Amino acid sequence: MRRSIYTKVFLILVLMVLMAFRIMAQDVASRRITVPQKECSIQTVFTEMKGQGNIVLSYGNSLPLNRVLKFETTNVAVSTILRLIREATGFTHKIQGDKIILIPPAKKYSVSGFLRDEASGENLIGANIYTLPDFRGTTANAYGYYSLTLLSDSVTLSVSYVGYQTKRMKFFLEKDTVLNVSLTSEVLDEVVVTSDESARDITHMSTVEMSVGQLEALPRLAGEVDVMKGLQLLPGVQGGSEGSSGLYVRGGSPDQNLILLDGVPVYNVSHLFGFFSVFNSDAINHVELIKGGFPARYGGRLSSVVNITMKEGNQQELHGEGSIGLVASRLTLEGPIKKNKSSFIISGRRTFADLFVRPILRKTSDGKEDQGYYFYDVNAKFNQTINSHNRLYLSAYSGRDKTRTSTTEELFRDDVHYRRKDDYDLAWGNITTALRLNSVLTPTLFSNITATYSRFKMDTRKEIDEFTKNSKEEKHDHFKNLYTSEIRDFALKADIDYIPSLTHAIKFGGYGIAHEFSPGSLTYRVGAADTTVGSYRINAVEFGAYAEDDITVSKRLKVNLGVHYSGFHVEAKKYSSVQPRLALRYLVSDKISVKASYAQMQQYIHLLSNVGVGLPTDLWVPATSVATPEQSWQGAVGFTYNPDNTYELIVEGYYKNMTGLVEYKNGASFMNLDKDWQTKIETGNGESYGGEIFLKKKEGAWTGWLGYTLSWAYRKFENIDNGRRFPFKYDRRHDLELAVIYTWNKRIDLAFTWVYGSGYPTSLPTASYSGYHGDDHADFGYHYGYAYPSRNNFRMRAYHRLDVTLSFFKQKKWGERKWIFGLYNAYSRNNPFYLSIQEDPTGQSNSKVIQHSLFPVIPAISYTFKF
Q1: CATH code of the domain covering residue 113
Q2: Residue 507, Cβ neighbours under 10 Å: how many?
Q3: 21 plus 131 within the same structural domain
Q4: Together in a domain, 126 and 227
Q5: Cα separation, 547 vs 496, whole angstroms
Q6: Boundaries of each TonB-dependent receptor-like beta-barrel domain copy (predicted)?
């Protein structure tokens, strides 16, 4: 009992002492001091505080005593003086009785460096580095560089990347520190779930990244790994007609996609008339698709950005990989030129089917026919580390398709010798080149200076040679025409990353592009004379600048705010545009984030397209006074749900409005021989809107995703369909994609995709008229006419398809080999490619609508190897 009383008394005394200190502290802070004038140095103020208030001050040598403080009156409270000192110098304070202790601000230092693959030295684009236990951090940029500015203290960093073992490092940060981190690939017997930044955490929405491993595991058309077909399996992305490698993103056209290979625009992405893309997966490191909420650093297109980064080459040892398939074969070599200093990669791919088919098609019963087709592409990249702060890259791509038909007819009759040879060639291809200098200017400032060249060229050649000889005369006629179309770009761009703190990630830069358009020229020869028409070039200059800041407002709220300015000069016409960009992310909980975005875009080039099956006869032309720039604005809202690191659910809704869209007038073709192409087009508007669901499973033996899109896309042109709004030709109401990859064990995996899409719209007549023309029925025959009530008034049958791939791996002493067996369209669905009208030659019954299909079930087998 007595002990309890003593305890209570002791506690009361301690409380009274603490209250006394508190009262004295309040008393010191509330005292008022008279200063000589309204602007005084800290040294002068301290002299008055000691003399008038008998206040003891304690501070270090780092306090700037000559810093001037500004007062509203000459009689001020000590609390006001301390507040002004904190605002001017960052020094905080602690009061102990009559003593004021001024505490200097904690020093901040930067830890920065590159995140790379330990075995190859490849940059880990988008790898995460953050502090523990508060999980504050950043991601590596497109070159693997990161920067964190932290208080001088004991620091624990965690570095993670999908498919790699997480690495943790603990050290005391007492100066600016360069910390290059290498991660080891994760090869484990069981699945280990590791922490990783998800779509929930990033500010931007409508962005999807795909690894090369995912692409290689997906089923393939004829055994070929295809980046673009992988992207077609994502919600909001449609692939156009059967087999096409084009992208129609959220109601946009293929020309509205900014497709970058190492930062260089690629204008035609199709091989084999659209069935394959030009991107060789063996040479690719990283693929990113942005469908909306575009960061300010991107401009020039309306619908999407596809950013493809090439590998840099193994810096440690020589490696190679290749594949032999039914359509093409590939070979890639990479390795160090000087270990840890420079490396190279070169990758080539070519069809070889033409070499086997050509002998079969070469001879016919009535003459000789020689047909052939091939494509090839070559990727190469070189990089050199100049010093710890500078690195130089040189990358290049070249690809070409060519199809040819040569027919020879030769007759001997009586004394007549007749020979005719017809040759037809169609060829198209891209060349891209990029020279890039990466520089670490300061620990928080990173620059990338790039010079690029891009060219797309298409040409067709038709040549006829006729020879006739008889007893009276000999005649030789020769006709030739060559049609070409081309676009070239020379560009220079500067991009700067500035990361002053954990709450700001600033990007800014500028660019200039010199465009050279050659929409079409025709050279023809009759006899010995050549004549060229439509040979002209249009030169244009495009330029711009941007700035954006990814701001961490609070633990829950992040904002990306930016603006993109662009201008375009063509002939005597000038255009400019200011395009604001905004993206918001709010964490409702540790598992749910809500996002919104708004972006304006402007596009200064148009693609005049006749068909949608990937033919290279589409023409690139600049914006002019007639064909004004295309503009769009897009708003989107959505949320992301991450119950754990295994599953992720993304739901988004969007609306996009477009103006300045271009289409050929009815009956116009690509054979535009002069500037009159501007009289053969219509300009109009478009809109699209819809919702997307994307469910992903990222860990475990079973991985993959389910995507669903509900969307509407419309076009409206004043002189098409009487100015009424009509469905876009790739308006698809429902679109479903299921992709599943099952890792059976280390030696076997199974992958399948199932896609479903409601039918595309097309134009069909609702009435017909018929009758004979002319007096002589035999000469003029039966004639049909059709009445179309509106454009795209009918929808084709729904499209669905199952693709399956089974892969067998085996480790050899020299490396790894893999056999891949697949089925494209496994249950041989008769999907619509296009519809046609079958006329009744007797005129006694109605015409029929005939569906034409392209691919039945297609088996594939390929052999790949790595060493």
Answers
A1: 2.60.40.1120
A2: 21
A3: no
A4: no
A5: 9
A6: 371-825
Q: If DSSP codes are grouped into helix, strand and coil, which group holds residue 357?
A: helix
In a domain, 500, yes or no: no
Mean pLDDT lowest among 75-84, 130-139, 450-459? 130-139
Q: What CA–CA distance (Å, rounded) separates 300 from 255?
A: 10
List Cβ neighbours of 577 (8 Å cut-off, separation of 6 or more).
565, 566, 567, 600, 602, 629, 631
CA 632 to chain centre: 18
Structural domain includes residue 412: no
30 part of a folded domain? yes
* Residue 9's pLDDT band (cuts 50, 70, 90): low
In a shared domain, residues 99 and 115: no
Nearest to 803, CA basis, from 853, 758, 756: 756
Q: Which residue has the higher pLDDT, 766 or 771?
A: 766
When pLDDT is averaged across residues 227-244 and rounded to a whole number, the result is 83
**pTM for the complete prediction?**
0.83
Q: How many residues does the chain have?
A: 867
Whether residue 534 contacts residue 520, with contact meaning beta carbons closer than 8 Å, is answered with yes
Same domain, 785 and 815: yes
pLDDT of residue 532: 63
| 131 plus 35 within the same structural domain | no
Q: Do 440 and 112 touch, CB atoms closer than 8 A?
A: yes
Residue 10's φ and ψ, nearest 5 degrees, are: -60, -45
179 and 285, same domain (yes or no): no
**What pLDDT, in 10s, does the model give residues 130-148?**
888 888 888 899 889 999 9
Contact 183, 773 (CB under 8 A): no
CA gyration radius for the chain? 34
Domain end point (choices 307, 326, 360):
307
Name the residue among 664, 660, 663 with its Cα closest to residue 632: 660
Q: Are 854 and 834 in contact (CB under 8 A)?
A: no
DSSP state, 625?
S
Specify whether the CB–CB gap between 82 and 106 falls below 8 A: no
Contact 449, 263 (CB under 8 A): no
Domain end, chosen from 126, 150, 183, is at 183
CATH number of the domain where residue 281 is located: 2.170.130.10
Q: In the beta sheet, which residues pair with residue 331?
A: 322, 348
Which pLDDT score is estimated for 405?
83
In a domain, 10, yes or no: yes
| Residues 755, 845 within the same domain | yes
Eight-class DSSP state of 670: S
- State the pLDDT at residue 24: 42
- Residue 650 CB coordination number (10 Å): 26
Domain range for residue 161? Answer: 108-183
- Percentage of the chain modeled with pLDDT above 90: 37
Count other Cβ atoms within 10 Å, centred on residue 567: 16
